[in-house]
Design brief:
mainly beta; three-stranded antiparallel β-sheet
Length: about 100
């Protein structure tokens, strides 16, 4: 994918529902806001409400934002700037930290 090219979410158009925390079931991301970046990690351009906690990190000689489930504290992944998305951020998520649930 070319840098700064708009995201292509067509690969996930068939997915419907909500991604939840694999530990506690808290709702975290809408399937409709998932997209492919080629990193191997599920990526989203928005979170649901305040269900994802943002924790600043300064480790390994760089600053970044860690993402945690607000309810149970499970590590979800990291937040990165990404000009291809409507929100200009990308939630890069560990696939083991989330599961797809049916839309309520």
């Amino acid at each position: 994918m070319v840098r700064n090219q708009p995201i292509d979410s067509s690969r996930y158009e068939h997915e419907q529902g909500i991604y939840t925390c694999s530990c506690c079931g808290e709702t975290l991301f809408e399937a409709a806001k998932k997209f492919e970046v080629g990193s191997g990690f599920p990526s989203f351009w928005s979170q649901i409400g305040e269900h994802v906690q943002h924790k600043p990190l300064d480790t390994y000689g760089r600053s970044r934002t860690q993402l945690l489930c607000r309810q149970c504290g499970q590590h979800l992944g990291h937040l990165f700037e990404d000009t291809r998305t409507p929100t200009h951020v990308r939630y890069c998520i560990n696939a083991e930290a989330i599961k797809l649930a049916a839309q309520p």
